[in-house]
Design a protein that fits this description.
Blueprint lengths: L2 H21 L4 H20 L3 H21 L7 H17 L3 H21 L4 H18 L5 H21 L4 H20 L3 H21 L4 H20 L3 H19 L5 H13 L7 H9 L5 H9 L8
Helix pairs in contact: 1-2, 2-3, 2-4, 3-4, 4-5, 5-6, 6-7, 6-8, 7-8, 8-9, 8-10, 9-10, 10-11, 10-12, 11-12, 12-13
C-alpha cells in the first residue's frame, strides 16, 4: 500500500533496464522486461493521480512491445504482453477522457486476446481477460446499440462466462464478471424505461457481488464492480420513487470507500466517492476529492456524465 515508495523503486528499475538496453539494444528479453517495469511505474503513477505521466509511460511500454511484435509478428511470446500494453494504454486514455484512443486500444487488445485464446483454450486467465475487455468495450459503445443489440451482446458474454464458470466454479473473478454482465443488463433496462425489470435483474447480481467482495475486500476490480452496482441500484430506486432505498445504496457505497478516501490520489477511489456525494445530495462531503480530480484533469466520460445528468444536479462541473 505504499504507492510512493513503490513508484520510486519502479523508477529505479526502469533506469537500470534503460541503461542496460542502451548497451544491448537488440536484446528482446530486455526490451520486454523494460516494458514490464514501465507498466508497473505507470500503474503507480495512476494511483498517485499523475495521469499525464502515467499515459506517457504506458505509451513507452506500448511502443516497446509493438517493436517486438512488428519485428516478429508470428512470435507468440509477444502477444500477451502486447495485449496487456494496449489495455494499460486504454486505462490511461480513458482517465484523461480520450475515448477514441481508448476504443482503439481496447479493440487492438481484444484482437490479440482472441488469437491467444484460440491458440490455448485451456488458459482461463486469458479467457477472463478477454471477457473483461469485452465488457469494457461494451461500456464505451452500449449507447450506440439498440436495446436488442445490447441485450444480445450481453447474452453472448453471459454464455461464454457461464461455460468458464463451469470449469472453475470457485473463481471469484468469473463470478464477478457474471454479476457484471447482469448489472449491465439492468442498466440497459433502466435506460429503456423498464425500472422494475432492472430492479429484478440487478438484485441477485448485487447480492452476489456483496458476497464476493466480503471474500476479497482488497481486490480493486471487485470493489469497483460492487460500487458500480450499488450506484446503479440507487438510480433504479430513484426511478421507482424509492428515495430512501436509493440513499441507503449510496450510503453503503460510501462505507466501502470511507477507509480508502483519506489522503488518496487514486481516481478509482475518488471518482466513486464524488458520485456517492452527488447521489446523497451532499457535495460538501466530496468537495476536496472533486477539486483534486479537476486539478489532475481527470475526464473519464462516465464520471462526468454521472455528475451532469444525475437528478441531484448540485455538482459544479
Amino acid at each position: 500500500g505504499n504507492v510512493e515508495s513503490a513508484a520510486k523503486e519502479f523508477a529505479v528499475s526502469v533506469d537500470f533496464k534503460t541503461k542496460a538496453l542502451a548497451k544491448s539494444p537488440d536484446d528482446k528479453i530486455l526490451i520486454a522486461a523494460l516494458a514490464d517495469s514501465l507498466s508497473w511505474l505507470a500503474s503507480a503513477k495512476l494511483q498517485l493521480g499523475q495521469l499525464s505521466e502515467a499515459e506517457a509511460l504506458s505509451a513507452k511500454e506500448l511502443a516497446l512491445m509493438l517493436s517486438l511484435h512488428n519485428a516478429s509478428p508470428n512470435d507468440m511470446r509477444w502477444f500477451k504482453p502486447l495485449a496487456s500494453a494496449w489495455l494499460h494504454q486504454a486505462e490511461a486514455k480513458q482517465a484523461i477522457g480520450d475515448i477514441a484512443s481508448t476504443t482503439t486500444s481496447l479493440k487492438s487488445a481484444h484482437k490479440l486476446l482472441q488469437v491467444i485464446v484460440e491458440k490455448d483454450t485451456s488458459n482461463k486467465i486469458w479467457q477472463r481477460t478477454l471477457y473483461i475487455t469485452e465488457l469494457r468495450m461494451f461500456d464505451l459503445s452500449s449507447t450506440t446499440f439498440s436495446k436488442d443489440q445490447a441485450l444480445a451482446s450481453l447474452d453472448k458474454l453471459n454464455s461464454a462466462l457461464s461455460s468458464l464458470s463451469t470449469l472453475d466454479p470457485k473463481k471469484l473473478n468469473v463470478q464477478m464478471l457474471l454479476a457484471g454482465v447482469e448489472q449491465r443488463r439492468a442498466l440497459i433496462q433502466l435506460h429503456h424505461g423498464n425500472a422494475k425489470d432492472a430492479a429484478m435483474t440487478l438484485d441477485p447480481a448485487l447480492r452476489n457481488l456483496q458476497k464476493i467482495y466480503a471474500a476479497a475486500p482488497t481486490d480493486q476490480m471487485i470493489r469497483n464492480f460492487l460500487l458500480d452496482a450499488l450506484l446503479l441500484q440507487a438510480d433504479v430506486s430513484f426511478a421507482i420513487n424509492n428515495t430512501s432505498a436509493a440513499e441507503n445504496s449510496c450510503t453503503e457505497a460510501q462505507k466501502v470507500l470511507e477507509p480508502l478516501v483519506k489522503n488518496s490520489a487514486d481516481y478509482r477511489v475518488l471518482a466513486p466517492w464524488v458520485k456517492t456525494a452527488v447521489c446523497l445530495n451532499k457535495m460538501e462531503q466530496a468537495a476536496v476529492a472533486q477539486n483534486f480530480l479537476k486539478k489532475i484533469s481527470f475526464h473519464d466520460v462516465t464520471y462526468l456524465q454521472y455528475l451532469s445528468t444525475h437528478r441531484n444536479k448540485k455538482a459544479n462541473l
